[in-house]
Amino acid sequence: MATVALTTENFDEVTGKDGIVLVDFWASWCGPCVRFAPTYERSSEKHTEITFGKVDTEAQQELAAKFGISSIPTIMAVRDGVLVFSQPGALPESALESLIEQVEKLDMDEVKQKIAEHEHGDAKAEHAHS
Q: What is the Cα–Cα distance from 11 to 53, expressed in whole angstroms?
């Protein structure tokens, strides 16, 4: 499967479903982004069950700003609608494969539980201050 261009219009729809979505924030003027593209493309052909999205930060400045992207390329992984990984820098193919393996092995019930605990912790902290 080829990569999918992500925009402010389709981002939430694509990343909000069950399964794994990788997102590559890139720009055409960015050398490391351009060099990383074939690696990302090869990986998308190998892992057809994963959606490989690309966000052109020039065309989608609002999306880049929403995620605080200050360095490109930045690679994100979203699983079952939850952002589980975000790191700037082009990954060598072996590191990209390793990232995919780790995201596939995540216990999403555990991840969602930790998020819920974190959110409740924040709420408790707010009550303590009032």
A: 9
Residues designated as active site? 30, 33
Instruction: Assess if residue 127 is contained within a domain.
Output: no
CA distance readout (Å), 97 to 36, 70, 77, 120 = 13, 24, 12, 34
- The C-alpha torsion from 13 through 111 and 118 to 63, rounded to 10°, is -30
pLDDT digits (tens, 9 = 90+) for 59-103: 999 999 999 999 999 999 999 999 999 999 999 999 999 999 999
Domain count, the chain: 1
Let me know how long the chain is. Answer: 130
- Domain span including residue 45: 4-105
pTM of the entire predicted model: 0.89
Mean pLDDT of the 5-27 span: 95
CATH code for the domain of 9? 3.40.30.10
* Four-residue CA torsion sign, 115, 118, 124, 128: negative
